[in-house]
Design brief:
Blueprint (H helix, E strand, L loop, with lengths): L20 E3 L14 E4 L3 E7 L4 E6 L3 E3 L3 E4 L10 E3 L1
Antiparallel strand pairs: 1-7, 2-5, 2-7, 3-4, 3-6
Length: 88
């Protein structure tokens, strides 16, 4: 099931802080329940994500990094970072 995009409903301002968060389970096939507004990286490494707009991209992330991206999934393949939390 594709990730639901709550911003399509106009219920959240794009400038508002995240109101929900969940620990990410890495997967090469299962999308988040909701499109993220950012992803937090707990421990350094590479994070491979499926972007809401399409395509896959990898980031070299440091511990404590907040990636301000709208992602639908964090892939198991290509991700070495740990402690990843999706915020929406």
């Amino acid at each position: 099931m594709p990730a639901e995009d709550l911003w399509n409903y106009g219920t959240e301002s794009r400038e508002a802080p995240a109101s929900n968060a969940a620990q990410v389970t890495l997967s090469d096939s299962v999308d988040f329940a909701y499109v993220s507004r950012a992803d937090f990286v707990g421990a350094a490494g590479t994070i491979s994500v499926e972007m809401h707009g399409g395509g896959t991209v990898s980031f070299d992330a440091y511990a404590g990094m907040m990636l301000p991206i709208r992602a639908t999934r964090v892939n198991a393949t290509g991700t070495t970072a740990t402690g990843i939390v999706a915020l929406w």
